[in-house]
Structure formats: structure tokens, C-alpha cells
């Protein structure tokens, strides 16, 4: 599996670091200037600290890098976190950085593109940009960690979100919600599903 990872200058660098650690396969990294600033501000990290988790890192101003061309394929390209500015550029077909040019390529080549947008609140323009790229086939996966797993630490909260990204890029995300009820794992005893009892549990 080959995954291209872009880190742009939105808050949430911790999600990118956790994803890079969890995602198996061959990974390539591009970090924008503001992505680098946020890595430093939020985690005291440099993009160089991420080298152990990737095959190679390309400069965001290197438009001659391999993924500037559709001749180099991958299973998924994920921008995590994705700033509103990067989203807007992608929505309007601007490819003036390696992060945005690679997104332009992903859309034209119909390769999987996942945008982990992080901004709040969202303007009408941002929502329209997200809708536009979603209609073109990109997956909008806003950084919205779930809480049904009752995370007790920031690490657990971060993991609850990044684990949801793994199946989106084609990796194994582990057992799904109440997957034991589906009989996926034949070694486990089958459990009778009683929707009424579930409803009672929820009350
Ligand atoms: C500390 C800090 C936090 C920021 N957080 C966000 C954010 O959460 N979402 C966002 O869309 N932009 C955020 N920005 C603004 C972007 O960094 C800015 O628009 C930048 O031009 C994005 O460039 P890039 O997408 O090429 O990385 C933040 C900027 C700073 C300095």
C-alpha cells in the first residue's frame, strides 16, 4: 500500500503524527511552511522527526517531485490537517504547491483524496469548497474525534479519530463498532442480537 500524506497549516498536527505512526505501508510526506510552523508550535517537532515513518519527504515548493505527475500512483492521498486555504485552492484547481498540485493530480486521475479539514466555525465559502471537492470524488473527513469509546487521554481521543482514517486509505482500521455481532470472527461465539435490549441499554 502506498499513501501520500500532506500536512498543511491547520491546527491538529498531533493527528498527522499519530496517523503516520499507525498507517502501514509505503508513505511519502509533504509539509507546507505553515504545517511546519504548526508542528513546532503544537508539538515542538520538526518535519525531520517524522522521517522514521516515511520513505521520503518532498518539499512543498518542489513541483518537480514525483507526485506532481499522475504517472506515479498511490492508493490514497490524505491531507491531515487540511487548512481552509488548501481546501480552497484544491476546490478551484490551483496547484501552485506540491500539496495542492498533488491534489489536482489526484482529482484528475481519479485517485483517492481525503481532506481532513480543520477549521471552526466554517464560512459559507468553506462549506461550498468542501461540497465542490466532495462532488469531484474527494472524501471530506473533518477532524471530529468520536467520544463513544470514552477516551480518557488526548492520545486516546486522537487515536479514536485517526483509526477512522485507516480504512479510508485502504488499511485495516481494526474491529468496527460492535463488530462481534456480525460474526466476522468465526472463533468468537455468535451473540444473539436483541434490538430491544440495545434500546434499553441506550435509555
Ligand atoms: C497557530 C495557527 C493556527 C492555525 N490554525 C488554522 C486552522 O485550524 N485551520 C485553518 O484553516 N487555518 C489555520 N491557520 C491559518 C493557516 O495556517 C494559513 O491560512 C496558511 O496560509 C495555510 O497555508 P497552507 O494551507 O499552505 O499550509 C492557522 C495559522 C496559525 C499561525
Automatic annotation (TrEMBL):
Keywords: Flavoprotein, FMN, Prenyltransferase, Transferase. Residues 1-160 form the Flavoprotein domain. Gene3D superfamilies: Flavin prenyltransferase-like. GO terms for molecular function: prenyltransferase activity. InterPro entries: Flavin_trans-like, Flavoprotein, UbiX-like. This is UbiX family flavin prenyltransferase. It comes from Eiseniibacteriota bacterium.
